[in-house]
# Entry
Amino acid sequence: MLDVALLPEEYAVCRLPAGSPVPPGLLGAPAQSGVLSVTWTAEEMSIICRADRVPADAVVETPWRCLRVVGPLHLALTGILASLVVPLAEARVNILAFSTYDTDYLLVPSVRLPEALATLVRAGHRLAT
# Structure
């Protein structure tokens, strides 16, 4: 059983072309709340950010809601994401998962949030307040 917290903001999943610089202002000031993830590959730059911080000229998918596994979690733990993703997959709720050193995050489409939360509770997880 995991404790899962719902972050209050809506999120966006953004794509910029490979080799793009990090958009000005995205990293400049610490986020007042929420989470920001920037990932570079040879094919693209992906950004997960609050919906109110979407970079100009990005291809954007929105709105998403973000769930955070209450941590920190030890890196040697196994099955954390699987315990969340499998029930959501069985309920046919699409997700985007990403991790930090301390914990794991799941994005679910805003329109599927009630179903996602109910599914996680039925799977034995607790919603942190």
Observations:
- Strands lie at 3-17, 37-40, 44-50, 59-69, 96-99, 104-109, 126-128.
